[in-house]
Records
---
Amino acid sequence: MAQGHIFPKQQIEIVQVLEPKGYGTAGKELLPVMAKNLSLQEGDPLVGKSLKYTVFNQALQDHIKPLEPGARFLADLEERDRPDSQYGPDRNINQIYVDGKPVSQKQGFGGGGWKGRSLEDDLALERMKNRSIEGQSAMDQVGLVLTGKNPIENDDMGLDDETWNRILGKYWQAVEKSLDNFLAQPTKTQAAKATTPTTAKADQRPPGGPQKAATPATVSKDQPPNPDPVKHVGDLLTRANKIGVNAAQVAEFLGVEEVKNVGDLNKAWATIQTKAAEAGKELFG
């Protein structure tokens, strides 16, 4: 969120320090304060009015909490407009000065998060964390169903075949993506090898001596006939979904009642691609 309007070193008078309020899921608190801005120019409609300010920074909260009504100090203020709301603007106290020195050493304006995040920014980060946790919980639940001692069938959960296959497809897609992300990260050993220069050993053979036969590790190998085999039914459904073929169509293309009964997954994938291409030609000529 963009920085609001900053008003540096304003003379503030405390009217009332309110009770702290929690926000987010990490036990954070904000401190509401009723105060007057004594630095407003004469004729300003807010002169003498008690306004509500919010304090996010912990060091500033600790400084303000013991203050009595009437206490005064210099502070950097911020106002953020809220054009889409009947409330606002939001007013924050971002810094306090005592004997000319700032109370908080945290850099930046704009609220109480790291690097000056506002309340809205912090809440947005909390929502992102929650979505991540919810996604992991959903994966765990499906994983328990699949790996339990007594696997649960889709009928036992009141799901039809198409819904169940769609959930399985999403699950295996998430698992595959997680594994890809994990494998893409170099291990400590790989990182060490990447940063350590290698020196080729000098040729120990006498001049004119016989050449040493290549070891199996140095002999090039032919590429496997299928470098990207289908791993499981979920992988098959994920691939089919990417080319616009749903689970019901997969079963129709393969001539089976349930996709989980498919035998040769690689052959099935080839058939799906062929059938999908033919269907596209019929549709678009």
---
Amino acid sequence: MQTYDFPTFGNLFSPSKGGFNIAHNTEMDVSAVNNSQRIAVNPGESWVVSWSFSVIEKTQAHEMRALLNKLRGHQHTVHLFDHTYAHKIGWPGNPVVSGTGQYGTLLNISTNRSNTIIAKATDRFVLGGQLVELTEDAVTNNAGNCELVLANEIRNIPASGTPLITNLLAMRGVFRWANPSQINQFVGNKRLYRSIKLDFVEYIR
């Protein structure tokens, strides 16, 4: 399996709408008798990306088509950045994992900043190659420690002392193409391609 990079966005080439979201793998059954609800919470939540491009010029369209053909349907993967994302604070304090055996939606970390807000809800970081998002503000205690509350579960248990990757250039995920039939949008040799839609789903190791 190969992992490729998506063409770089610029002022004249970026999605007109859509973005990154986490799809939680839950199911709800509603009783036909009394409308009671039964919720099943399953593993396997993942990032999904849905991008729409109102207009793409021929050069960018051909570059995208070439990349999509390299993916060979679902076979290969692609690095995707959320072009709309930015840290709200910037993760001061050089946070690292504190403790062993951690997984799920809570992560203990340590920093060199005490009694400080180091990140805000919806801020992100990368750990073990996985893009992770917060659901609550991260505030350190007197010792510089903090428990992060996460929107998506940590899948690979990190070693204590592993640094959280917070560089904005690293805020990317690895994705598979969710709908390879979308290649049909690039038929022909037009000057402009309109209403292009692309969907991706996070690659789960």
